[in-house]
Specification:
- There is one protein chain.
- The chain is mainly beta.
- Helices cover 15% and strands 40% of the residues.
- The longest helix is centred in the last third of the chain and has 17 residues.
- The protein is globular, with a radius of gyration of 16 Å.
- The N and C termini lie far apart (41 Å).
Length: 171
């Protein structure tokens, strides 16, 4: 049994370490902060929310992955909301920095890799994924999502990282 609930998905196609996945609707408890090199700011805002700093004072289980993406000059950091909640039952944030973000059912192109949380590492695997998607008749529909499955104290060699893009097959 896993320690944390993880976002569920269905693998539609697999090619080595790249997968095309179908995700159902996903709720993310999110915050926007200033960008930094490791793209890991905002964690404490969302951690406070799941620790009971919400209208219902509910403690929400930690989940994986933590999802980050750039939105203009800001970094959006989101925690996957456990599947027992829906958009009507999820505890409402009380801090203006936290919001509930809904990602609708969609296909994503995903690459899995290990290593440090640095622009250099993210960019290396991002390029591999983008090349694969473009060369295999996929249209990219979203910003780059970075998915992190372990906490920062875990050495890079043991970290499960992923980069994902919402995609659709070109007509």
């Amino acid at each position: 049994m896993a320690l944390f609930e993880t976002i569920k998905y269905k693998v539609i196609n697999k090619d080595k370490f790249i997968e095309i996945r179908e995700y159902e609707d996903i709720l993310l408890a999110s915050t926007k902060t200033t960008l930094n090199e490791n793209q890991d700011s905002g964690f404490s805002n969302v951690f406070n929310y799941i620790s009971g700093k919400n209208q219902e004072k509910a403690k929400i289980s930690m989940t994986t992955p933590v999802v980050t993406y750039k939105d203009n000059d800001k970094l959006v950091t989101g925690f996957y909301v456990p599947s027992k909640y829906n958009k009507d039952s999820v505890p409402k944030p009380i801090e203006k920095e936290v919001f509930i973000n809904e990602l609708k059912k969609s296909l994503y192109g995903v690459i899995r890799f290990k290593g440090s949380w640095s622009d250099k590492n993210f960019d290396k695997y991002d390029q591999i994924l983008v090349d694969y998607l473009l060369n295999n008749n996929y249209e990219i529909l979203s910003a780059r999502l970075i998915l992190r499955y372990q906490p920062p104290f875990v050495p890079g060699i043991f970290r499960r990282n992923e980069i994902a893009y919402q995609v659709r097959i070109k007509n």
